[in-house]
Amino acid sequence: MHVTRLACGECGSALEGHFSFGWLEGLSREQIRFIQTFLKCRGKIKDVEQELGISYPTVVSRLNEVVRAMGLEAASGEETAIAVQRREVLDELAAGTISATEAAERIRSLSAG
């Protein structure tokens, strides 16, 4: 989809051509909804977690996907997301909600991904 006409609602003048959506063009509908939620929550990841019902690492991962789709570099953010996921696994292990074997498998899968 592309924009072909821009019009002024007040004076009625119009401009026709082929116009870009800019940075929005590279985002999926899901990514745009995520950004809307992120902005609604004023960038507070804990609030985004609650609003979308997803974990902290998932919020960070989706944010990195949007950054990449916008053409911005996200390499260091990706490393941070993996570190956060590792910390989450270790927290679950410390709380006794997962076994040491499961924690090791999950951490291995993070490194392989």
Task: Describe the protein.
α4 packs antiparallel against α5. The protein has a two-stranded antiparallel ribbon. 60% of the residues lie in helices and 10% in strands. It contains five helices and two strands. By secondary structure, the protein is mostly helical. The model has no long low-confidence stretch (mean pLDDT 84).
Helix percent reads 55-70%
- H/E element order: EEHHHHH
Q: In terms of per-residue confidence, which ranges show pLDDT below 50 for 5 or more consecutive residues?
A: none
Number of DSSP helical runs: 5
Assembly context of the chains: single chain
Strands, total number: 2
Keywords:
60% helix; two-stranded antiparallel ribbon; single chain; 113 residues; mainly alpha
Quick synopsis:
By secondary structure, the protein is mainly alpha-helical. The protein has helices spanning about 30-40, 45-50, 55-70, 75-95, 100-110; strands at about 5, 15-20. It contains 5 helices and 2 strands, in the order E-E-H-H-H-H-H.
Q: How are the secondary structure elements laid out?
A:
Blueprint: E1 3-7, E2 14-19, H1 29-40, H2 45-52, H3 56-69, H4 75-95, H5 100-112
Antiparallel strand pairs: 1-2
Helix pairs in contact: 1-3, 2-3, 3-4, 4-5
